[in-house]
Amino acid sequence: xxxxxxxxxxxxxxxxxxxxxxxxxxxxxxxxxxxxxxxxxxxxxxxxxxxxxxxxxxxxxxxxxxxxxxxxxxxxxxxxxxxxxxxxxxxxxxxxxxxxxxxxxxxxxxxxxxxxxxxxxxxxxxxxxxxxxxxxxxxxxxxxxxxxxxxxxxxxxxxxxxxxxxxxxxxxxxxxxxxxxxxxxxxxxxxxxxxxxxxxxxxxxxxxxxxxxxxxxxxxxxxxxxxxxxxxxxxxxxxxxxxxxxxxxxxxxxxxxxxxxxxxxxxxxxxxxxxxxxxxxxxxxxxxxxxxxxxxxxxxxxxxxxxxxxxxxxxxxxxxxxxxxxxxxxxxxxxxxxxxxxxxxxxxxxxxxxxxxxxxxxxxxxxxxxxxxxxxxxxxxxxxxxxxxxxxxxxxxxxxxxxxxxxxxxxxxxxxxxxxxxxxxxxxxxxxxxxxxxxxxxxxxxxxxx
Length: 450
Ligand code: TYD
Ligand code: MG
Hints:
With 450 residues, the chain is an alpha/beta fold. It has helices at residues 55-64, 72-78, 98-112, 126-136, 154-163, 189-206, 227-231, 330-343, 369-381, 407-417, 429-436, and strands at residues 6-10, 16-17, 33-37, 66-67, 82-83, 87-92, 117-121, 146-149, 168-172, 210-215, 234-240, 246-254, 262-268, 271-274, 293-300, 303-315, 323-326, 351-357, 389-390, 394-395, 401-402, 420-421. The site of thymidine-5'-diphosphate has 15 residues, from helix 3 and helix 4. Thymidine-5'-diphosphate binds at residues 92, 94-100, 132, 135-136, 267, 269-271.
């Protein structure tokens, strides 16, 4: 059977199809299929080589081949460090600090061992990267071990690496490199796919750990085929609010180490600084006693973080009241509002509810449910929660407070930080609310606080 001359690739799920259709047969998204012409020229990916090895010898090679990144918070997320032949994708919004982190990694790797790094600066010019290197270097480093490659051509990168092998390859960014074999521009789905294929093949065949930088769109999706996330070994996501200095490095996927582990950094004028003990770093300054504020401890990986949820409830003229949430999914807010309306008889149907998590953190831990509910009640009744109190609990649809995971770890951290969990014996929200606030459910006139 003759090979097809083109395929159709879905930009949403990354699946390939022989024919075009308006709706992707796999993910059901509309207008996501685009044509990719297949080239007959043989690429490195098409070479069929067969390598046989025993599990024990393969294990021996792996044990020898991990390279600690020398940055504690990064190693925490990576697990063993950079693995030989591993392909890493560092994703994040533009301006969040990806290039800063990788420049610091370059400096750390080259100053500690005999490593050599090839840093492909396809987005910036070499002078810009060099300026950042000078700005961030702290200890004596070895500039001769860093090779800045100013090109956006993948074939040129691979040709250079054939003659100048490096211990680690960094490509900043995958959206700005392109392969000669395609006529499309850099950043198109076909180019991202083709360029990553060539770089992944290079990493696997030479054993060079390779880090690809990937931009994400405003909605948090990686700009490019979803397929890229499946192709690489590790996906790291750098998150944070650009108006705050805290940055979270999340391990979204990790074939070599733990998933769901998080590294914490602070962006400063001298680069990213590791945050080992976050303590009360995630709290706003004047929040101690304000109505509408509740604190909780959420797990980020294996580390509990003290965070504050702020709520503001205001009477609305709208037929459908507003539910606005930052750092919390809106469906979660809607669900908590429904529980409060049903079980605590709060008249939230005539109130707009705004909630926000301080310092731009995004919460996914269900243990934050109770603090979210209490922050809303606190703002609605215009009464504060006890000072230094913590709410820990997941809420059920019946208004019951459910036990949460890692309770011991959270209690230990609460004690360290001088916070007292609310009465753990009360397992019902209505009862807890009655104990904490005045028994009247009639709202006081909300003030523009919290
Ligand atoms: P950058 O790493 O270029 O972001 P990305 O590669 O994700 O697009 O850094 C972006 C921001 O970080 C930029 O606004 C400048 C700031 N920054 C600092 O605050 N301190 C520093 O030491 C450096 C290098 C950058
Ligand atoms: Mg950058």
